Amino acid sequence: MVKNGGVGAINSVLTAKIWGFYDVLFKGKEFKFQRPYGSYVMENVLFKISYPAEFHSQTACEAAMTLHHKLKEAGKTVEDIKHIRIRTQEAAVRIIDKKGPLHNYADRDHCIQYMVAVPLIFGRLTTTDYSDAIASDPRIDALREKMECVEEVKFSAEYHHPDKRSIGNAILITFNNGTTLEEVEVEYPVGHKFRREEGIPLLMEKFARHLRGRFDEAKAARIEGASIKGAIEDIEVDKYVDLYVTEK
Questions:
Q1: How far apart are CA 106 and CA 113, in angstroms?
Q2: Helix-strand-coil percent breakdown of the chain, rounded to 5?
Q3: Predicted confidence band at 110 (pLDDT cuts at 50, 70, 90)?
Q4: Residue 85: other Cβ atoms inside 10 A
Q5: Co-location of 178 and 235 in the same domain
Q6: Does residue 49 lie within any of the structural domains?
Q7: pTM of the prediction?
Q8: For residue 237, pLDDT beyond 80
Q9: Residue 59: which residues within 8 A CB-CB, separation 6 or more?
Q10: Range of the domain at 222
Q11: How many structural domains comprise the chain?
Q12: For residue 101, how many other CB atoms are within 10 A of its CB?
């Protein structure tokens, strides 16, 4: 793949007739790229900050947390709910719209209905909430049965849009008496580039918490100090990585 030669280079690995990469796998067509090589991937990194949940459901979890508080303000409980509509992206419908029994942690954190039900009921979503003990609460499956996932074309389009990469979800609750709560829509999760200002402090809090779950306070503080903006730019990569080494 080296165009201009050099030691060990095979100039025609892509372009050689019959046996070159283009002819064998791409019917003679050259590679086409959505954008020039650059820093797009790093600039668009998604950090999983708020919830231990499959990424297509992150904004649904956030919307469910908001609705948990709105239910309380309205003097309602989940028993008052007749129907829940989740507008979401095509990818979420395909990957995490899941009916029927859920057998384990992996089943539950790939079920958007489960990941919406738990915040609505408990006002939280943690790793423990995927356990058998929590999943055995009959309110969860009862609420799942009341949910309907529908694709929102706008969310699907903007999920694939290179300048947006949104992961939108919107939840509408209808009560037994026919009234509704105002729909809550969230387009971008906290870990998205469009919410960096909000997300970075939360990411650093998570980082600090997990450091202290592995290292003593002095070592955790050293790593944390070297990782903040203004410090990490000035430390050599190998010296930074060495901070994580533990003595046996």
A1: 14
A2: 45, 10, 45
A3: very high
A4: 17
A5: no
A6: no
A7: 0.85
A8: yes
A9: 167, 168, 169, 186, 187, 188, 189
A10: 195-242
A11: 3
A12: 8
